[in-house]
Amino acid sequence: MTALTGPQVSTFTAFRATLRRDLLIALKRRNDLLNPLMFFLIVVSLFPLGVSSDPQELTRIAAGTVWVSALLASMLSLDNLYRADYEDGSLEQLLLSPQPLYFLVLAKNIAHWLVSGLPVVLLAPLLAYMLYLPADAYWTLMLTLLLGTPVLSLFGSIGVALTVGLGSRGLILAVIVLPLTVPVLIIGAKAVADASLGLALGMHYSLLGALLALSLSLAPLASAAALKISVN
Amino acid sequence: MWQWFFRLGSPKWFYELSGRWLPWLYVAMTVLLSIGVIWALLFVPQDYQQGDTIRIMYVHVPVASISLACFPLMAVAGVITLVWKMKLADMVAMCAAPIGAWFTAVALATGAIWGQPIWGTWWAWDARLTSMLIQFFLLIGVIALRSAIESPDAAARACALLSIVGAINVPIIKYSVEWWNTLHQPASNFAMDNESPFGPEIWVPLVIMICAVYLFFVISLILSTRNEILVRERRSQWVVDLIAAQKPQGA
Known about the structure:
The complex is a heterodimer of chains A (232) and B (251).
Chain A: H1 11-28, H2 30-50, H3 55-77, H4 83-88, H5 90-96, H6 101-130, H7 138-163, H8 170-180, H9 182-196, H10 202-230
Helix pairs in contact in A: 1-6, 2-3, 2-6, 3-6, 3-7, 3-9, 6-7, 6-10, 7-8, 7-9, 7-10, 9-10
Chain B: H1 2-8, H2 11-43, H3 57-84, H4 87-119, H5 127-148, H6 152-180, H7 200-232, H8 237-246
């Protein structure tokens, strides 16, 4: 690390540049942006078709349905996270950079969440309305998704990083990542269900916040280590 | 102090040492298992509520307790693999995953067989059952990742990392599931005195069974690791010599 030549770049600049680059690429690929969202919409609308169109029954399953669909949509969008970078070689450049990999991975994860997680959060009330979720629970649904979907992106990033070099990775990614996301699903869905019953919610938010803090600090480290293993 | 640790990393050394241990482990396991099974099946008094079904506990509890120990074991082996690049640790982790998955499956199956007469259902979305099921999924994930990566070295490090991530998550999953729903009886405190519902005539055979099943796990792990050592070291001289020595002359 002593013989670095050329202009020195601060970690924050590198972080911002990575974030900007990933967001730009995402905005140029409208389909990648739209597909997970459409998937989310379609999966949610399959539930009334498969279960029942009875408003009372739908109210009961609304919280879980929206959460499970958000989880699946996040899983589907994960493949974009490192794949193109792996194929065109820019991932190797990222690993060679003198900047701490933690921040670069974090920037990529944040960019990924902004284009795949945030739209899901914003679309959620519409779907909640279609499933007759009680109006009291709307804010809880959005807030828990806001706290929970970044955790999904961060955990998912570890799985993608581990499988990025493999030929057929779609299914193995889901097998690895889905069990890890169980706590987020449990707490998020229960918070929304409790909110529609008018129960206290402080504990749910604290638990989700704790999960978010934990995954923000540890998951990018694991992703960085996984990337180093996958890219040799 | 570190010398034995690094010597342990040599597959050849482990192969020879475990070969000397195995007969003793077999004897200990056979003795404990016979005592435990006979005691548990024939001499333990019937439970005043559960009758003879209480005897399922003597299989279920040992198997379940070992399947819980499997992830920490894999995570420790994973740390050793990543930090010291010790091949043996990876072989142990690799062999522990399928054995652990089997133990988890058996724990779930015996739990279902026990649950049917007691709760009246084979399956309930109860906290411990569910967290066992998710642990089973996690183990399947590690096994699937191992088989998907072709380079053994990359597979070793990737699985090591996934085991560590999984081991950090297992307690989080356990507590979140527990918080979500619970029906399973809490883990009982065993006491020496007879006032507790679990007197010594109940728990002594249980402890014997736990030790016996632990030995069974250790023996399975050692046998499977020895196999893996022979496969991976098949080109090294000591394995060639070993195979040559075991072959009958002229065959």
